[in-house]
Amino acid sequence: MIRFLFGYGVLFIVLAGNAAPAKFDYLRAGSLVFSNVTVVGANATDLYFTHDKGISNVKLKYLEPELQKRFHYDPNAAEAAEQAQAHEDTRYQREVVASLIARPAPVGETNYPSSSPDAPADPISERALIGKPGPAIEFEKWSGPKPQLRDKFALVCFWEPWSIPARKFIPQFNAYQKQFTNNLQVVGVVTREVASGDSGGEAAAFPSGIDSDGKFGARVGVNSIPYVVLMNPKGIVIYAGHPAALNEKLLQVLLARE
Fold first, then answer.
1. Residue closest to 47 by CA, chosen among 35, 36, 59
2. Which of 13, 18, 143, 241 would bridge 208 by S-S if both were Cys, CB 3.0 to 4.6 A apart?
């Protein structure tokens, strides 16, 4: 048995004892094409495999019909599994916040008084970035043109095309980029390049840096997606957490301070 840990739950992928793994010269999933593929397992929603550039997973719903049948794709079961994962993500986020609140740390160097109503968040852990310089927004590769960040706030949004909860916020991020274009730059962060139509809904109207090794996300302390980090033009983190805590009115107040 091979065990993979994805997100917050343990996903078991079982390979039959003596069965040879499925191998394909090419595997197409939507607009993506992988070569030299060896399947290592599957569950109700995803196919997991190695290929000539590493290890990946794709949604069964994006495979060609014959492969969906081969790997027992059931649309109803897949939808139920994705809803269950979204529920688990929410539960995990609440548990993390509760555990941090149980051991509060000093506020540190912030631009706001502790628990100020004007502040979008207060740090609750020694590792919290709020009030501290964030990591440099630098990536070797981008999906979309490299953003111009000088003298602008940066709203760094961690998302993935396969994440339903993350995709739900793409229209909101797009709206922020359009409304506050003069002093805010939305920057996405993904683990692989985003193909056209890969968001499964409204396309992202902002560039996304490719954090293929996860180092940038680790420096920020991302523990779930969607996740955002808001930095002022000096690179100081004002907010880090779920994007639901931000809204248009709050952003207007924050951006007007500079």
1. 59
2. 143
What is the number of structural domains in the chain?
A: 2
Please indicate, yes or no, whether residues 43 and 155 belong to a single structural domain of this protein: no
Q: Structural domain of residue 147, as residue ranges?
A: 105-256
CATH number at residue 235: 3.40.30.10
| Pairing state between β 46-51 and 54-59 | antiparallel
Give the DSSP per-residue string, 65-79: HHHHHHTT--HHHHH
Encoded tokens for 2:
């091979």
- For residue 182, give the nearest of 249, 256, 245, 131 by alpha carbon: 256
- The predicted-structure confidence for 167-177, as pLDDT tens digits, reads as follows 899 999 999 99
Is residue 66 located within the same domain as residue 110?
A: no
181-219 confidence digits (pLDDT tens): 999 999 999 988 776 555 557 888 999 999 888 889 888
Q: Model pTM greater than 0.70?
A: no
Q: Are 34 and 64 in contact (CB under 8 A)?
A: no
